[in-house]
Amino acid sequence: MIGNRITHRMADGVRVPGTWRHAFICNGGSYFLTDLFIYADGLVDCWELVTLDEFEKKLRSGWVATSLPDGGHASAHHLASWTFGEPRTWLTPELLLAEVRDTVDKLNRRPDSTDRCLAAVDVFMGDRSEENRAAARAAYLAIPETVRHYALGDMDHKDRPLQVLVAGPGGQAPGPPGEPVTQGEYDRAVAYFEERSQWRAAAPARVPADGPTGSFAPAVKVYHSYPQRALEDPGKQALRNDYPAPITLGDVTYPSVAHAYWARSVAAPEARTAVAAAETAAKARTLAAAAPRREGWEQARTAVMARLLRAKYEQHPDLAAILLATGDATVLYDDADSGFWGDNGGRGRNWTGRLLELVRSELQARHSRVD
Question: What's the burial of 6, exposed, middle or buried (CB within 10 Å: 0-12/13-18/19+)?
Fold first, then answer.
């Protein structure tokens, strides 16, 4: 079970809360005991920062190991090494992934599988139909088996009242086979939840006046790439500044945001023209790097980039739809050439990602007619 350990990482100047648990990594046939860090923006650090989808692939492949072979070699870096002898494990890829997803929800103060189960129980307690009981039972079974005991936060009763309630009189409680639930057991479980509801109602509740402080959607990572041509279905690659989506500013049309950015960075008009006409965004950058920079460029570049991104997504509604589809996710933009524009594994300032979030918010406001 993932505990309540507290950690964080810095991303584009923002503190991203996280937690961690122990895990085994299988690399080159050997097993390494390490720490698995889970962050609120949906990224997981298992020797590298990955998205939840990428983490699932590592689980399915066995690189993050949930089963351990008898006789396998293991080590904890700089501490010890050993050989497994009749190892017993409790996790499966499905269980660990479910725990990690629950942890991301908790870090964002969103309902996790346990909260969703207890909400279904509340519905059943208000209307004790068999349909509502079945929904509560399904929600209980959706809680990772490794954490069901802790669902009620009651170490005296553990999850037994939940098991009894979702089974009903004469029903079979989830878990190992046993005797059917008696009427007396069921009545006590109902009384337990009625009393629990009373003290929960008396507890103070605080609702943020302006909505959540963090994003609901998992983080979106825009990997560094060198797109050469427009694609029919570009996906997140369309969010790259060097993606070939021409933008027009005044009487000049640039092949991409990157072309426009680098052209506007140089001082000499002839250099500007050459950069704008470069065959690729990479060549535009190379030409601009060899030319003198405009005075005050470092102080103005963020505002210039914001304008260019607005132009891109205003002039290309299909690409704006891709940006809007990221919801309220944190956008992590990799840029191997710049620690200012790229997140680069948490080491950069991620200004491109931040500006993409700003432009996305402006597009959402326009669609919702919020001003």
Answer: exposed
